[in-house]
Amino acid sequence: MKFFIDTANIDEIRQAADIGVLDGVTTNPSLISKEKGKFEDIIRQICEIVDGPISAEVVATDAEGMVAEGRKLSEIHKNIVVKVPCTVDGLKATKKLSSDGIGVNMTLVFSPSQALLAAKAGAMFVSPFVGRLDDISHYGMQLVEQIVSIYNNYDYDTEVLVASVRNPLHLVDAAMMGAHVATMPFKVIEALVKHPLTDIGLKKFLEDWEKVKGR
After folding, report:
1. Which domain range does residue 45 map to?
2. What are the residue numbers of the active site?
């Protein structure tokens, strides 16, 4: 399973990359708005830190505008994946961009039918938003399970990128279901490694080692 970080914060990306398990980065206009600097400069910095897929989102809502923006974004760096919303125009843009060899991450996916359309249009990634579904009393991970099953039925190359991950349980469930990627905030990446028994065990080992040193 690939681990992506969902942020545009350079410090968080560097910290996550230093751990040694980071495979890519996802950004969106909301995340970019929290950072200082020009959009293109922030994306370039991210590409310098992480050698993997870097999702950068279009803001146009018409197919022609999405394609134009997507082409421009793809010129920033070879690892750029163009993030496109799951709309009729988004599907049109995905078909065109993917046909031109530009990777597309179809975002804001909330149903299996949307995910199926994304795969048929040639998306490299499809991003179901599990946390946002949980927020409205739907079981977000059920959507992931459905998408994985559908893709396996037809051997689609599109990878399931689980987004809106709020906690380690989302990640574990996604991995058990066979999702290809999970993208998460830095605080969730930090939470993955934490366990009270690890802390207790390490503390005991170090205390016992002090006894050995004192002999």
Report:
1. 2-213
2. 83
